[in-house]
Specification:
65% of the residues lie in helices and 9% in strands. The chain has 445 residues and is of the alpha+beta class. The longest helix has 32 residues. The protein is globular and about 75 Å long. The chain starts with 19 loop residues before the first strand and ends in a 6-residue tail after the last helix. 25% of the residues are buried.
Length: 445
Amino acid sequence: MQSLVVEPQGHSEGPQGLDITFDNRAERLIGLGAVNGGLKVLTLGLYAFWAKTDVRRKLWSFTRLNGEPLEYTGTGKELFLGFLIVFGAVVMPVLLGGFAVAFLFPGNKVALTLYQLSVYAVFFLLLGNAIYRAQRYRLSRTRWRGIRGALTGSPAGYGWTYFWTLTGPFAVIALAALLVAWRIGPQVGGAIMLIGFVAGLWVLPWRSNKLQGLLTRDMFFGDRPLSYTGTSGPLYRRYLYAWAGSALIYLAAIGATAIFVLRNNLVMQWQLEKIMPSLPQVLTLVGIWAVTLLTSAMITAWYRANQMKHFAVHTHFECATFRSDVTGKGLMWLVLSNWMLSFFGLILGALTGGLLMYALGAVPAAAEPGGLPREPGPVQIALAVIPVIVLTTIASTFAQFRSARYFLSRLKLDGRVSVASILQSQDLGPKRGEGLAQVFDLDAF
């Protein structure tokens, strides 16, 4: 394919700066979320692929370079077809394999466990592949002044690096612990396994920097590549605080869980009497770990902000360098407020659904003579679910907008770029959407 020069009229031929801005037009996203939620209900969830496309088109159009918006050219059909292909090629074989193992080895827990472990390993191997393919699809469907982006490397190569950079170190630790357990004893081996796992987490900054470099060096805008010059060393100072803080939080959560389980004799009740924990007990345990995960996310916000700044300042395009002004405090508030927004949408939807069921006579206050409530029918349950779907869709759409606004409004490009001399990319990108990313529920604004 012959390369084409894109030369919009009225623009300077010489190098120019690129100013990245983001329009604050949240009201359009809230209305779009309501429409998308309603269409999801009417299509029994099938419209989710088109809804995702609609949101991306809006967010891309809000993002501007020198006042000119980005354009997203992907379609819901591409996402839907990509999902169907991956569902048939990956998910269905996994399900059929599980049925085959259960049929050929009935009651054999060892066979079933080995199959499940192999599935987890394959899925983790495919996860990096899915991340890369999703980025490739989105870049190929992103245009500015008619010039599209591209990601030209190997998804399989990135997926393998994503896999071994985490599983390799921990596999070595596990092997060493097993050898110690065999030669000395299981208690010592278990202690080494635990210490080794905690220590092995120090591989994460190196791993994230390596993956960022692989991804960035494969990126193009038109025929011009991006470059990455970062190393992992500067990341470790901030990582120390995130690692130590998270370790203390998880140790506290493990201790709180153990105390709660022992005080309520949950293990003995299950072993001796097969009594399941009550709903309040389950909610307490879920609450402990929900607070733990949220607190850990807030503690690590400063490290993640520092990591984003590090990635940005070592990413270059032509003679220009990116810069990010995100902060730990701002990122922490973004995580907390988006979580609260999603939770509020869920609770409000559930309350609205409950009021609908009340109006339809499926609650004790509308009981027949005798004091017993009428059981809700399928239609009543379906009507009660509608506000949950609509309001959670509105909340998630607004949360995506807030994330995009926060990151993009703080992203800068320092330097000058010869925009008019950039040629169109010869890479057309994939024909179908990010199927693997849909299966793994990976998303980005």
